[in-house]
Write a structure and sequence with these properties.
The protein contains 9 helices and no strands. By secondary structure, the chain is an all-alpha fold.
């Protein structure tokens, strides 16, 4: 009799864990798709692949629009005030406040505009993406330190020269997630 109770308890525990795993998987999938509208709108406006924007949102905020970073970065794409104000000025947004970046639409527009600017900055390289991501994460001054010699145009060499392990991890993880999202989150998909 004791063995039967123990087996039932084990079965119940397995079912609870499996149910919890399914619920977690469902919630994560729902959260991951929760910002697709603003991401697609920003991608369309600024001509940046939505899968790339989504990969950055995944890394920066894990799709939570109310995230506030340690250096007062705000929202989905963790925008610093200077970058957000630069976007607002270029787009002639009146009465802009950094707090407006808690809005997913505003945040993805400003962040995508800034990302496009960084991608264009490194257009002379074989792949501007690692340079732009390193700049997005660590700033232009650090990228200028790391892109000397062959690393100035060779993105694989550049990644190896990134002096901050956290930034190297950031670049690699966003590029990996971007590759993951590309087949399922195309510009022409609904």
């Amino acid at each position: 009799m004791e063995r039967v109770k123990w087996l039932w308890l084990c079965l119940l525990l397995i079912l609870l864990l499996a149910g919890g795993g399914v619920a977690y998987w469902w919630w994560e999938g729902r959260l991951e798709r929760s910002q697709d509208g603003p991401i697609r709108a920003a991608a369309g406006r600024y001509g940046v692949e939505p899968a790339l924007i989504k990969a950055i949102v995944w890394r920066e905020s894990h799709f939570h629009p109310w995230v506030l970073g340690r250096a007062e970065e705000i929202g989905l794409m963790q925008l610093q005030e200077e970058a957000a104000r630069e976007w607002a000025s270029a787009e002639h947004v009146p009465d802009f406040l950094h707090e407006h970046c808690f809005d997913p639409g505003t945040n993805t527009l400003a962040g995508t505009w800034y990302l496009r600017k960084l991608l264009r900055r490194y257009a002379q390289t074989d792949n501007p993406l690692p340079y732009a991501l390193a700049d997005y994460n660590a700033g232009r001054g650090n990228v200028l330190k790391w892109n000397r010699g062959e690393a100035a145009t060779n993105s694989a060499t550049f990644i190896g020269h990134i002096g901050f392990p956290g930034t190297r991890d950031y670049v690699n993880s966003v590029m990996h997630r971007y590759a993951h999202y590309r087949p399922q989150f195309r510009p022409d998909a609904p």
